[in-house]
Amino acid sequence: MDVLAKLEILTDAAKYDAACTSSGVRRGFRQGYIGNTTSSIAGCCHTFSADGRCVTLLKVLMSNCCVYDCAYCVNRRSNDTRRAAFTPQELADLTINFYRRNYIEGLFLSSGVLRNPDYTMEQMIRAIRILREEYRFNGYIHAKAIPGAAPELVEQLGLLADRLSCNIELPSETGLRTLAPEKTKAAVLAPMRQIQVRSIQNKEELVKYRHTPKFAPAGQSTQMIVGATPDSDLHILRLTQGLYDRYQLKRVFFSAYVPVVESALLPSKETKPPLLREHRLYQADWLLRFYGFRAEELLDEQAPSFDPRLDPKCCWALRHPEFFPVEVNRADYEALLRVPGLGVVSARRILTARRTGPLRLENLPKLGVVMKRAQYFLTANGRMADGLRFTQDSLLRNLIAVEQSLLPQPEMRQLSLFDDAV
């Protein structure tokens, strides 16, 4: 099989992995190297540099051959699909040639488990080492640590890649035993813990010794599949909160289950991917990371799933009328963040602007406040918008109407240069 045929197979097989959208690392020009992380062929995905620019990555598997038989995975060993595997040299050559042609600016590398976890990681490490040491590639690389691989291999991978990730796959240990019995929770969490501990040690070393090699400077992330098992949004959000608290992950990614295989253990192939549910979980994840919310505030045993009609912040606001209205001229930063229609930037702008004098309602849109939502939950100088009248029922209807135009589009797919021109 030629390299182009392998590329087509292995970029297509990589499209279900969502855990690559934020690099969070800066590495500029380095003498004698090519590429940087501050600035596609098949399998294009995108990340964002620290200065906000969109960076195109080659998203590909080292191999889609796999010794595991996970029921939800298109690459499981029992599935009848075309198989391919790059050699380390082939993958390094492809990456550097695509970079030189300005198709990509970095690499996102994952793999099925070829032979065993250690062998797979060794192949990935060799490919990345060729890029770093022979081709002196200084661009962004995100690599997947394979659960079950030896700790010394995780160490080597972390010294070569900018970001590491280890997929938790399913939200519960019960789901993992049912759909992926050859994998264990302990095998998944072990490299997560190693990466966390090693990253802390590396930061301490860098303070003492300037030239210490950096270990996964962009941190680590993980991904879980949503909709393949009956786990509730509450369970998923609690797990997400726990991962942030225990392992200091940069991101937890959610991937709506796409029914690509027929199994009695899974939703039927006619089931639509739960994209809206995925969207709500990402919104809730944002609230956990940037708005000071906790999982138990957003959902509870009486309401274990998000209302698909409303974003999680509005749902929380409707359940806590005692917290509102918030007075923008007196509220602290944390209280402002809880107002629907206010974000991190607009809350900071309010704090800055009110130093020069009291704010009025007509000032707020200029500060980035989305008044279609916020008008129901705040006051300025004790006054709400003129003529604003609403009940709890009419407020719910109004917020649902605002939300409709913001829902994600149903058709989303990964870019590929193998597609027909449009």
Automatic annotation (TrEMBL):
<keyword id="KW-0408">Iron</keyword>
<keyword id="KW-0949">S-adenosyl-L-methionine</keyword>
<keyword id="KW-0411">Iron-sulfur</keyword>
<dbReference type="InterPro" id="IPR023874">
    <property type="entry name" value="DNA_rSAM_put"/>
</dbReference>
<keyword id="KW-0479">Metal-binding</keyword>
<dbReference type="GO" id="GO:0046872">
    <property type="term" value="F:metal ion binding"/>
</dbReference>
<dbReference type="GO" id="GO:0003824">
    <property type="term" value="F:catalytic activity"/>
</dbReference>
<dbReference type="InterPro" id="IPR051675">
    <property type="entry name" value="Endo/Exo/Phosphatase_dom_1"/>
</dbReference>
<dbReference type="InterPro" id="IPR058240">
    <property type="entry name" value="rSAM_sf"/>
</dbReference>
<protein>
    <submittedName>
        <fullName>DNA modification/repair radical SAM protein</fullName>
    </submittedName>
</protein>
<dbReference type="InterPro" id="IPR010994">
    <property type="entry name" value="RuvA_2-like"/>
</dbReference>
<dbReference type="InterPro" id="IPR013785">
    <property type="entry name" value="Aldolase_TIM"/>
</dbReference>
<dbReference type="GO" id="GO:0051536">
    <property type="term" value="F:iron-sulfur cluster binding"/>
</dbReference>
<dbReference type="InterPro" id="IPR007197">
    <property type="entry name" value="rSAM"/>
</dbReference>
